[in-house]
Amino acid sequence: MPAASNQAFDVITYFVSNFPKLADAGISGYPLILNSLPWLTPGTTTFTTIKGMIGNLIMINHKNPADMNALLDPIYKKINETWPGLATITPTITYYPNFYAWFNDHYDKSPVGHENLVSSRLLDAEALSGNATKTRAALEKFSAGGQATVFIVSGKGVHNAKPRGGGNSVLPAWRNVYVHASAFFGSRGFPFLRKTWLTLCSYRRSMAATKSGVSSPGPPGVRILGVRPARAGAEHGRLHERGSNPPAHRTAGSQQE
């Protein structure tokens, strides 16, 4: 949907409001909300800024794709009738004989080593479908950073679980919720933290290379305390373990603060 559309989050809210019903029918999955993100138009090299949803929905213990279509088609029909021409819906349903086959197609292939600050909420049926106006406002604000997850990762199996002993360490709210929603900050890393870490790494490498043990002023804004020559420091420690004082000629000038 065009990012400029004032009705885009009406469509998103309606779709999300159906999650409790879909979960009760056996559907789970990993939908994401896109809020004004660049999107490559299929079949072209053109990027447009859109609002919408993408993700995977899963229905286990069913071999006929028509079972999932029967649940989703009425939702798609309602969207097209209520907001004609606004949303482009492109569902693709694939049958997998087992979880391993599905996992081989869907495991996370993104690179590791980036930082995120994540905030999340557990949403029950009332939060998802009790008041469309409030849910719309919350979803739009929650995804203001560009995207947010609304993972359908709870349902009958979690709600009706009978742990041995009558309970376990699971947060009790999971017994009533349907969605784990998360928002992100810093998806491109935190450059100010990374810069400080790289500066410290560079300084440590230079210290190791000199092998002199004599402290330099250190990186800008970083105070280095207690730097001493390795040999004197080692003997200093061993002598103190024996309750002795180190010889003066071994420690003179060995520590700077």
Distance between the termini: 60 Å
**What portion of residues belong to β-strands?**
15-25%
Number of domains: 2
Got a strand count?
5
* Biggest pleated sheet: 5 strands, antiparallel
- Highest CATH level, the class of the largest domain: Alpha Beta
Low-confidence stretches: 214-257
Number of helices in the DSSP assignment: 10
In a nutshell, what does this entry contain?
The chain is α+β, with helices and mostly antiparallel strands.
Please give the structural blueprint.
Layout (H helix, E strand, L loop, with lengths): L7 H10 L1 H6 L2 E14 L6 E13 L5 H18 L16 H8 L10 E8 H5 L2 H11 L4 E6 L3 H4 L17 E9 L5 H20 L19 H12 L6 H4 L6
Antiparallel strand pairs: 1-2, 1-4, 3-5, 4-5
Helix pairs in contact: 1-6
